[in-house]
Amino acid sequence: RCLGYPAIGGNRSLTSITLTRGVVSGFDMKKGKLQWYKSDCLLSAGNSGGTAINANFELAGIPTETLQDPETMEALSYIRPVQSMPAKWFELIKKAVK
Description:
By secondary structure, the chain is mostly beta strands. The protein contains one helix and seven strands; from the N terminus they run βββββββα. It has one domain: Beta Barrel (Thrombin, subunit H), CATH 2.40.10.
């Protein structure tokens, strides 16, 4: 599940949060480490940088982008898993909530 504030149709003043469902359909690995979840969760502009949660409503990752095949129109979204986020990000988050 991905949460965010998509700006569909250029209307960036929408304030209601949007929840989209999807499943993890694959993984991108680099040097044996998980870098990305691949998902069919639809990410519109405004969802990137939002929140991806698992079935237990725990933070699973940060939705980043959706790539679409121009011929088939099939889309694949990329979510940065929590465990692959740089330690610096967590330091910045801790500072921001103090």
